[in-house]
Amino acid sequence: MVIRVKVNIPRSHPRYESLLLREKIVDAMIEGVVVPEGLIAHGRGECFDYLIGEKTRDFAIKAINAAAARLVLASYPVISVNGNTAALVADKIVELAHELNAPLEVNLFYYTRKRAEAIKKILEKYGADLVVGVDDRSKEIKGLEHERGKVSPRGIYRADVVLVALEDGDRTEALRRMGKTVIAIDLNPLSRTARKANITIVDNIVRALPLLVERVKTYKKKSREELARLLDFYNNEEVLREAIAYIARRLTKLSREYK
Ligand code: PTJ
């Protein structure tokens, strides 16, 4: 049995925003949208967010710009949604899907039909048009012997560009082997997903998604040539190096406070 203790978090609390996100994640776990393991994943994210100072840094902005350009240029972009993403940013995920005219695919590591349906319901509550991956997981991502490997023929299987968030694992590599471009949102620049994606946004999804939506709106007005040029100058390894170097510099600076 889970004992849920609801307290009133005062706005004056120095960690007000962070505590609200925790409440969202825990509520979603009680509703069966997030798995208990999702709370652990969230805690890992909080830790990396702490290391970058809980702000969107330049390395994230560069990746957001590249991601927006790649998504606008895509012929069939698909947005993959898991429990944590649905709990934290369902509204923005749906807005992004509308802007791109892209399907949303529920794709879960801890898959149950009930969870997938609950996530679909949340996305539809925010106005999602096309949510796949619930009752049409008839295609396989080769090399993935777990539930994330079962995908929809109208979603990830058909996509040329896939946006994934809050996961660490082998899926990005498998998708790349299929020739797809993978855009990841992951606060941990050292994760397997972060290192294997074509474009990695090292930022909290709650800050990164609104910025990505706005950038997509702007880039839809640009020419394809201009967007392609922008992508030519993008280097994901450099962005990851910048993220790690930023954390190292920040920690060194903070360590000097303890002389
Ligand atoms: O809903 P399911 O069944 O698909 O399961 C989802 C979880 C999250 C449980 C599953 O994907 C998992 O176990 O993920 P990991 O391996 O813990 O990886 C989660 C990654 O997301 C870590 O690298 C975290 O640093 C990162 N992360 C956590 N919260 C955020 C985040 N990145 C961006 N924004 C966040 N808010």
User: CATH homologous superfamily name?
Assistant: Phosphopantoate/pantothenate synthetase
Average pLDDT over all residues? 96
| Topology, number of strands | 8
Bound molecules: ligand PTJ
Q: How would you describe this protein?
A:
With 259 residues, the protein is an alpha/beta fold. It has one domain (58-244): Phosphopantoate/pantothenate synthetase (Rossmann fold, 3-Layer(aba) Sandwich). Helix content is 52%, strand content 10%. The protein is built from 10 helices and 8 strands. It has helices spanning 16-30, 36-51, 58-73, 83-100, 113-125, 171-177, 192-196, 205-219, 224-232, 236-255; strands at residues 77-81, 104-106, 131-132, 139-140, 150-151, 161-165, 181-185, 199-201. It has a 6-stranded parallel beta sheet, with helices on both faces. It has a two-stranded antiparallel ribbon with strand order 4-5. Strand 1 (77-81), helix 4 (83-100) and strand 2 (104-106) form a beta-alpha-beta unit. Helix 1 packs across helix 4 (83-100) and helix 3 packs across helix 9 (224-232). The longest helix has 20 residues, at 236-255. It is globular. It binds ligand PTJ. Residues 35, 37-38, 41-42, 44-45, 48, 82-84, 88, 108-110, 166-168, 185-188, 191, 204-205 line the site of ligand PTJ.
What is the topological layout?
Blueprint: H1 16-30, H2 36-51, H3 58-73, E1 77-81, H4 83-100, E2 104-106, H5 113-125, E3 131-132, E4 139-140, E5 150-151, E6 161-165, H6 171-177, E7 181-185, H7 192-196, E8 199-201, H8 205-219, H9 224-232, H10 236-255
Parallel strand pairs: 1-2, 1-6, 2-3, 6-7, 7-8
Antiparallel strand pairs: 4-5
This protein binds ligand PTJ.
